[in-house]
């Protein structure tokens, strides 16, 4: 079995994506997603019961809200959200808050692209944003 190397210049790829959420790669155990949160926007408070999440911030400024704690985040920061932990990330600056995140196991449909938070929320509510099962 031949497997091609997946390679991303991640900060550049993330900066060039205007989409709220874009799944770049989905593996059996993890998933790589880039996100762009507009000014005055947020990911939305959520809990992933069985999924760990690691978020790395590429540009912009925001506030991480994890397990009741709040902390400013800027480019170069990384935040870990263990499974079962309530969290939200809010853009507190005038420019987009750009990040990439790794989910383990995958959280979203392979190759999913959601241009806005509203589009992402609608896809989730309709059951159209489910991770691969195999």
From TrEMBL:
Residues 110-120 have a biased composition (Basic and acidic residues). CDD domains: cupin_Bh2720-like. This is Cupin type-2 domain-containing protein. It comes from Micromonospora noduli. It holds the Pfam family Cupin_2. Residues 34-103 form the Cupin type-2 domain. Residues 110-134 are annotated as: Disordered. InterPro entries: Cupin_2 (IPR013096), Flavonoid_dioxygenase-like (IPR052538), RmlC-like_jellyroll (IPR014710), RmlC_Cupin_sf (IPR011051).
